[in-house]
Amino acid sequence: MIKVEKLSKTYQVARRNSGFREAIKSLYSKEYEEIKALDCISFTILDGEMVGYIGPNGAGKSSTIKVLSGILTPDSGECTINGRIPWKERKAHVRDIGVVFGQRSQLWWDVPVIDSFELIRDIYSVPKEMYQRNLEELVELLSLNQIVKTPVRQLSLGQRMRCEIAAALLHSPKILFLDEPTIGLDAVSKLAVRDFILGLNQKHNTTVILTTHDMQDIEALTSRILLIGKGKILMDGSLDELKGKSVHQDASLDEIVAQLYKQFRI
Amino acid sequence: MKKYLSFFRMRFINGFQYRIAALAGIITQFVWGMMEILMFRAFYRANPSAFPMEFSALSSYVWFQQAFLALFMTWFWEKELFESIKTGNIAYELCRPVDIYSMWFVRGIANRASKAILRCIPILLTGYLLPSPYRLVLPDHLSVFVLFLMSMLLGFLVVVAYGMIIYGLTFYTVNPMGIRMVSQSLAEFLSGAVIPLPFLPDKIRAVVELLPFAAMQNVPFRIYSQDISGSDIYQAMLLQVIWLIILVTVGKIIMNKALGSLTVQGG
Fold first, then answer.
1. DSSP class of B193
2. Which Pfam families match (chain A) (predicted)?
3. Which residue, A41, A65, B158, B160, shows the most beta carbons closer than 10 Å to its own?
4. Residues in B lying within 8 Å of A, measured between beta carbons
C-alpha cells in the first residue's frame, strides 16, 4: 500500500533574461525563484490498483515518481510504501519496486541486452529459477526473442523501450512505476506494452502507477485517475468521473483533459 | 558481494571492447616513455652528480608508469558518471538495491583494470628488451617484487578513492569541468606523473611526499626501482593505507550528503 500525506517539495530555479549583460550580472547576483513542485499532496493507493497520473508539463508528475521511488527527499510530509519510507530505507524499498523512466535508459549501451539483464539479475540477487521463469515470460509476451541478443545501440526506440520494461520486471516487483513508458512506440508495440501491463496486473496483482500524456494509455489501463497541476492534486477519481466533467457530449478524452487544464488554470 | 563482482565483470567486458583504442594507446605510451627517458638522459649528461635517482631506476620508473598509466592517471574520468549526474540518468542507479559509493568504486576499478591489462604487457616486454640503461630492470629480490605489487594495489585504490571524491563533489556544481580541471592538474604534478618526486627540491619534496597524491604511483614505482628501500618501504606503505582510509571515508561522507539533498536533473 502506498500512503502519501502532505508531501511538499520546492525547487530553486535560477532565472535570468537573455543576453550578455544579463549573463554577466548573474555572475555576482543570481536571482532564484522558488518553484513548488509538490504542494501538500496526499493520496492512498491500494495493492493491485492501476492508477493513471496525469497533468500538464511541469505539473510535478516526475517529482512525485522520484519521491515514491526513493530518489528524491521531500521538504516535508510523509510517505510510506509497504511500511517503509522510500528515501530513508532506499535499499530495502527499491527491491520491491520496478521503475521505467521513458526518457532514460538503464541498459548498457555497448553490449547485448541479455548482458544487462544478467547484471540486473545479480544486482537484485534474483534466484535462478525465478529469473528463468520471468525472462521466458517477458521475452514471449514482449516479443524480444531476437532483440535480447542485439547490442542496445543498434535497437530502435520502441525495441529498446520494450527491453527497458522487461528489465524493470526481472525481479518481480510488487509495485511498478511507469514514467511515460509508451513514448516513441509504434502502434503494435504500444498495444503489446498495454496488453502486457494489463496481464501483469491481473496475474501478479502488481500495483501500477503510470504517468503519460497519451490518454489512450490511460483509457486502456487505468481504473483510477489522479490529476495534478502546479503541484496540487486537483482530481482523484475514476475514468467515468473524468468523462463526466466534459461540457460537450462527444468530446474526446484529450479534449476533456485539455478543458480541465484550462478550467483549473494549470 | 556477487552483485559487485557481476558489475565488475560488466564494466570489464565493456572496457575490453575497444581494441584499436588500446593499440593506439600502447603506441602513444611507448613513444611518450621513450621521449621522457631521452629528456632525462640530457639532464643526466649535463650533471650526473645532481641526478637524484640512478638512471636505470629512472628508466624502470618511466616504463612502469607508461605500462600502468590506466591504473594511475588522475586525469582519466568516466564520462558516463559525469553525464549521469548532469543529465539525471543517475535516477536508475539510485533505484537499485546497492550502495552507490561501492558500485562506483567497483566500476572505477574495473574500468581502469580492463584498460591496464590490455596495455601493460606489450609495453613491459618492449621496455625489458631495450638496451641498458634505458631498459626495464628486474628487481634483485623477490621480496621487493612482492612489496611492489602490494604497494601498487594500494596506490591504485588510492587513485580510485580520490576520483570518488571528485565525482561526489560534482553533485554540488551542476557542471563538473571546473573541479575536474583543477583537481587533475594538481594531482598530475603532485603524484609524480610529470616528473618523479625525487626531482623536486628537498624542502618541497618533504611536504609533497606526505600528501595523498604521493601515495599513488610514486610509492610502488620507487619501490620497484629500489629508490625507496629498507624500512622506508613500510613507512611509505603505511602512509598509503592511511590515505586510502581517509579518502574512502571522506568520499563516502560527501556522497551520502550529496544523495540526501539530491535533485535529479531533467524531467
1. S
2. ABC_tran
3. B158
4. 2-3, 5-7, 10, 13-14, 17, 87-89, 91-92, 94-99, 260-264, 266-267
For residues A136 and B182, give the distance between their C-alpha atoms in angstroms, rounded to a whole number.
50
Q: Distance between CA atoms of B65 and B151, rounded to whole angstroms? A: 14
Mutation for testing the B interface, residue in A71, A81, A87, A131 having most B CBs under 10 Å: A71
Residues of chain B with confidence (pLDDT) below 70: 174, 262-267
- Where helices occur in B17-99 by DSSP H, the ranges are 19-46, 55-67, 69-72, 79-87, 90-94
B89 and A105 within 8 Å at the Cβ level: the answer is yes
CA distance B9 to chain A (A): 9
Using CA atoms, how far apart are residues B98 and A123, in angstroms rounded to an integer? 7
ipTM (interface predicted TM) = 0.77
Cell of B202: 628537498
**DSSP reduced 3-state for B115:** helix
Give the minimum alpha-carbon distance from A53 to chain B in angstroms, rounded to a whole number: 15
Per-residue b or e along B207-232, where b marks 16 or more CB atoms closer than 10 Å to that residue's CB: ebbebbbbbbbbbbbbbbbbbbeeee
Query: Mind telling me how many Å the CA of B15 is from chain A's nearest CA?
Result: 10
For testing the chain A interface, which of B14, B83, B96, B104 should be mutated: the one with the most A CBs within 10 Å?
B96
A73–B contact, CB cutoff 8 A: yes
Structural domains in chain A plus CATH codes: 2-6+45-263 (3.40.50.300)
Q: What is the pLDDT of residues B230-264, one digit of tens each?
A: 899 999 999 999 999 999 999 999 988 887 776 55
Q: Express each pLDDT in A121-165 by its tens digit.
A: 999 999 999 999 999 988 988 888 889 999 988 998 888 888 999
In this predicted structure, what is the pLDDT of residue B266?
52
β-strands A232-238, A224-229 pairing: antiparallel
> What phi and psi values does residue A68 have, to the nearest 5 degrees?
-65, -30
Average pLDDT over every residue of A4-9: 90
